[in-house]
Amino acid sequence: MKCKYLYDVTEPRKEFWHLPGCIIREDGPLIGQHVWPAGTIEDHPGAYKLVRNGAAEPADDECRLKAAITTKDFERAKLHNGALNAGIQPEDYQRYFDGEILGYDTEGNDIPGPNYIKPDEDEDDDDDDED
């Protein structure tokens, strides 16, 4: 059964690093790691599990039937797996889902998304003004 990766998938096993398609990521959160790039099609008996957790989509009917996941559940799984693969901290998932952030820079600061809301710098000081 076959699936197609939606995100880069790390390959920690050295014995597979030489296979065609396995690359060393030169950018992003997986920099320096061996990965199977997004779009890679894998033929594996457990491919349906990757579909269920949102890391891949079915690439054949056998995988589609074995995964047995609704479109709604698949979309939700893809969303959460996308946040995980972008390195988003759990407390920022909703901000990521809402498009407020795209991720973090190398110093851990927010990378603004299309719906970014600039933090109010005086927010913490508001309580001090009320005496």
Please provide a written account of the structure.
The protein has 131 residues and is of the alpha+beta class. The protein folds into two domains: 1-85, no CATH class; 92-131, no CATH class. It is built from four helices and eight strands. It has helices at 47-52, 61-67, 71-85, 93-97; strands at 2-5, 9-10, 23-24, 34-36, 41-43, 56-58, 101-104, 110-112. It is flat and about 55 Å long. It starts with a strand and ends in a 19-residue tail after the last strand.
Number of domains: 2
Q: How do the helices and strands follow one another from N- to C-terminus?
A: EEEEEHEHHHEE
Helix content: 25-40%
Class inferred from helices and paired strands = alpha+beta
Number of E strands = 8
**Overall pLDDT metric:** 87
Sketch the major β-sheet: 3 strands, antiparallel
Low-confidence stretches: none
How would the blueprint of this fold be written?
Blueprint: E1 2-5, E2 9-10, E3 23-24, E4 34-36, E5 41-43, H1 47-52, E6 56-58, H2 61-67, H3 71-85, H4 93-97, E7 101-104, E8 110-112
Antiparallel strand pairs: 1-5, 1-6, 2-4, 3-4, 7-8
